[in-house]
Amino acid sequence: MLGMAECKGRSQHSPSSSMDSSNHPALSTTASPCRPDRQDLSTDLRLGLSLSTSPSSSSSSLHEAESIISNPRNQVLFNWPPIKPFLRSALAASASRHRLQRTLFVKVYMEGLPIGRKLDLLLLVGYESLLVKLCHMFKTPITYAAVYHQQVPAVKAAHILTYEDQDGDWMMAIPDQCKETKDHKSGIMLSSKLDSCGSLYFLFCSLFGRLVEKYLIESRC
Amino acid sequence: MTYFPEEVVEHIFSFLPAQRDRNAVSLVCKVWYEVERLSRRDVFVGNCYAVRPERVVLRFPNVRALSVKGKPHFADFNLVPPDWGGYAGPWIEAAARGCVGLEELRMKRMVVSDESLELLAKSFPRFRALILVSCEGFSTDGLAAIASHCKLLRELDLQENEVDDRGPRWLSCFPDSCTSLASLNFACIKGEVNAGALERLVARSPNLRSLRLNRSVSVDTLSKILMRTPNLEDLGTGNLTEDFQTESYQRLTVALEKCKMLKSLSGFWDASPLCVPCIYPVCAQLTGLNLSYAPTLESSDLTKMISHCVKLQRLWVLDCIADKGLQVVASTCKDLQELRVFPSEFYIAGYSPVTEEGLVAISVGCPKLSSLLYFCHQMTNAALITIAKNCPNFTRFRLCILEPGKPDAMTNQPLDEGFGAIVRECEGLRRLSISGLLTDKVFMHIGRHAKQLEMLSIAFAGDSDAGMMHVMEGCKNLRKLEIRDSPFGDAALLGNVAKYETMRSLWMSSCTVTEKGCQVLASKMPMLNVEVINEVDESSEMDESHGGLPKVHKLYVYRTIAGARDDAPDFVKIL
After folding, report:
1. CA B254 to CA A102: how far, in whole Å?
2. Which of B69, B275, B321, B329 has the fewest CB atoms inside 10 Å of its own CB, making it the most exposed?
3. Which residue of B83, B141, B346 to mutate against A (max A Cβ within 10 Å)?
4. Cβ atoms of B110 and B86 closer than 8 Å
């Protein structure tokens, strides 16, 4: 298990069916809301690493996470809750694997060029980083709808970012759209998959439920 | 009866499979002792240090199935230091010398070396079944020896062992002539296996009924294997994490549909929600389902799957299922007998999506429930009382509230009354684990009502010695008592010393027992091994700061006819 930041007043692990961009507990920062009804300081928490107890597995790459929790009596607890090491390490490995190994590749084309570029959306954090990345990849400034408060300064040969929705229409991609479509059934599935890996709170490609295969950047001028 | 020829007596004894009964008839007279011991086929040794292996082998030279347990139960939770003991070597060596007809060996929580496995493989020409549970100390090289030399191997069952992976070679060591495999479980092997070797092995094993794969086996390999095993009853899947490979999943569905005998499903390592629809065809026939390694499946995925499982008797699941998922279980699985709900986020103190409401719903919908292991973050007395009334058939009831010492979530009272209801209503209760805020009162209830109780696990509970003494006095059938972080001291330890001879073992860690108390126990009861386990770690400094006599960090007491063991490490003192 990777070390986790000490956090007072643990953030809420929202139920898995919740639709707001839930904070994955493993990645939550102090920005996440604390459960209002929790009792105070009993939730100081640190995660330590310990070597596996068996001598033969000293070469094992999986370390058992020894959970060290402080309880209301302010004692440091070892080896609690009582779960078998096999399950403990499987869950710990799953949590770290989950964060690191999920990918969501999309192919982005620029108008006029037949060859698209592949991009792993899960490595990006935020709409801006998508734009920055695309700018670098295609060596062109990208602009989007004026409703968004931050605008790329108008440049002569700017491009806009669009994608094809399930009806085959070309839609312009703006971050405000992230807030819609929580009720769309398949949108939920994809967005909840993204939620569960937690690194992407930018729900751009989940808007219309299926894996969006390509974005076409059109020339504006 | 003594006028009957011995063959007749032996035949009569063959109707007594239970070890207890056979032990009883052995005591009648010398003739019966001899007849019984030479005809005993199954021997179960609950504590490997209670008796010397040579003695067992000498008494029962014709044993076919031997079962030995090593470390105490709390070793599962890292409470027993490494190198404490529990070595399988002496048992295998003794058996190799004294009972060459051995066919089956079961070991739990023992340290097994590759050398021992090799000796095992070469010493018993009729060897058929090796079952290792929560063991350690061996590698895939040891498994290679078993595969190579046990010509009649029917069962190789590795459950949650710590195995040093030295490569995939071991699976290829099953010779082409080996066609007898009925059960193969290598789910705990961490590394890759050779898919081709696996497929060939399955293809030449027509008797295969149980197959549990590890994470490295791909969906495609799984589908190919399943096409060859239409009689499979128990399957542990391989890797189901692939996303968006619809063809693979379609092939899997087709293959699963062929397995009309499939009753039990496990594995699901980090399973993708996309695999869930593939399982639908078999759900209606399942009696056992283990989803505890699938934190990637959310409540909605789980409930979709479970809503098809109308025949389910045994369900192991993570708490991601949430209370509302448990309600689906309650309304679907009317035959449910065993439920285990594990915490998925164990490193977060005190929060879990399951509460007392989920368990109450289960108790309403599943009155046949007899075995429970439930991790949750809150409980109430009212809920426990309701659950006890709804499910009087509990034989195993283990409740773990994640925050130690947490009171009733509604009334802030201790949970004494709730657990009291459980022991009162469930007359057949054999195993109990308690948690939450608990005073000596709960032990009063347990002592008074839990007359069939055989195993009791206590953590962070009780106020005084009286608590433990209630249990020692009242629980007539108690065999195993394990306690951690509770205020029981010498008075409790010494309150009923004769009782320890009727029990298998006592474990106490982070209690208030002193070394003097242990000395007194050891001197009063020579038939016990009193092991004081003191490691040097952070918590031992805290003990000394309490002042007074130095507290014993960990204590393990067990009855034995073998005397003090000679393989104890430095940090174990046998008084």
Report:
1. 27
2. B69
3. B346
4. yes
**A4 in contact with B at a CB cutoff of 8 Å?**
yes
Residue B83: its chain A contacts at CB < 8 A? 55
Containing A129, the helix (H) or strand (E) segment is helix A127-138
C-alpha neighbours within 13 Å on the C-beta side of residue A155: 15
* Residue-by-residue pLDDT tens, chain B, 575 positions: 557 888 888 898 889 888 889 999 899 999 889 999 999 999 999 999 999 999 999 999 999 999 999 999 999 999 999 999 999 999 999 999 999 999 999 999 999 999 999 999 999 999 999 999 999 999 999 999 999 999 999 999 999 999 999 999 999 999 999 999 999 999 999 999 999 999 999 999 999 999 999 999 999 999 999 999 999 999 999 988 876 567 888 889 999 999 999 999 999 988 888 888 889 999 999 999 999 999 889 899 999 999 999 999 999 999 999 999 999 999 999 999 999 999 987 654 556 789 999 999 999 999 999 999 999 999 999 999 999 999 999 999 999 999 899 999 999 999 999 999 999 999 999 999 999 999 999 999 999 999 999 999 999 999 999 999 999 999 999 999 999 999 999 999 999 999 999 999 999 999 999 999 999 999 999 999 999 998 765 444 444 444 557 789 999 999 999 999 999 998 888 88
Cβ-contact B117, B88 below 8 angstroms: no
Residues of chain B in contact with residue A79, where contact means CB-CB under 8 angstroms, are: 77-79
**Which amino acid type is present at position A66?**
E
Q: Do A57 and B459 touch (CB under 8 A)?
A: no
B348/A25 Cβ within 8 A: yes
- Residues sharing a CB contact under 8 Å with residue A170, sequence separation 6 or more, in sequence order: A162, A163, A164, A216, A218
* 0.90 surpassed by pTM: no
